[in-house]
Design brief:
Elements (H helix, E strand, L loop, with lengths): L2 E4 L14 H12 L6 E3 L2 E8 L2 E8 L6 H12 L6 E7 L7 E5 L7 H10 L4 E6 L10 H5 L8 H14 L10 H12 L1
Parallel strand pairs: 1-4, 1-5, 5-7
Antiparallel strand pairs: 2-3, 3-4, 6-7
């Protein structure tokens, strides 16, 4: 993996919404690994730095979520990256809050940001899915739920999830990147 892409929507109105968890992960990685100098180009904010002695890019597309592929495709073309060089970090309604799943390839699962990425660069990229759970109130649509801000109750799982991702991120560079999710699952069981 050479480029970590957090999916989200640009603008202060969306900064702390569940749909923007990808941006929050990129911000946490940026702080943890001192990769701070973000530039605006290719419809994205991006920075380059090192994690575990490996050169990596951090990206936050500045298109809206549903057209994230435009930014990633432009970045990919300029830097001559392959789809498998990307790890796309995004929210997942079907995972419990704070649960993490790493997957290579596959469909979009109804996620419009992934749908656009798949159309622009193909399906063969890594996906780091962060569970945000489903709405507790059945009257709330999924679309409205993902655009709600995280609550103070959410901090109980959100803060440790971000910290654990940053702590164990170097495991993604090992021969078996799935060790990353195994370690995180084990930690969540023991906490």
């Amino acid at each position: 993996m050479k480029a970590f892409v957090g999916l989200g929507n640009p603008g202060a109105n969306y900064a702390l919404t569940r749909h923007n968890i990808g941006f929050l992960v990129i911000d946490a990685i940026s702080q943890s690994y001192d990769i701070l100098d973000f530039k605006a180009k290719f419809h994205t904010l991006y920075s380059q730095g090192r994690i575990d002695n490996r050169s990596v890019f951090l990206l936050k597309p500045q298109t809206f979520m549903n057209v994230s592929g435009k930014a990633v495709s432009a970045f990919q073309s300029f830097y001559k990256l392959k789809p498998e060089d990307f790890c796309i970090i995004h929210d997942d309604l079907d995972l419990e809050e704070g649960k993490i799943r790493l997957k290579f390839g596959g469909g979009h699962g109804g996620h419009n940001g992934l749908r656009d990425l798949t159309q622009k660069i193909g399906p063969n990229f890594w996906r780091l899915k962060i569970g945000i759970g489903r709405p507790k109130m059945t009257s709330l649509s999924s679309a409205d739920y993902v655009l709600q801000n995280f609550t103070t109750d959410d901090e109980a799982w959100l803060v440790p999830t971000l910290q654990n991702i940053c702590t164990h991120l170097p495991l993604l560079f090992e021969t078996d990147p799935h060790k990353f999710t195994s370690v995180l699952m084990n930690e969540s069981i023991n906490s």
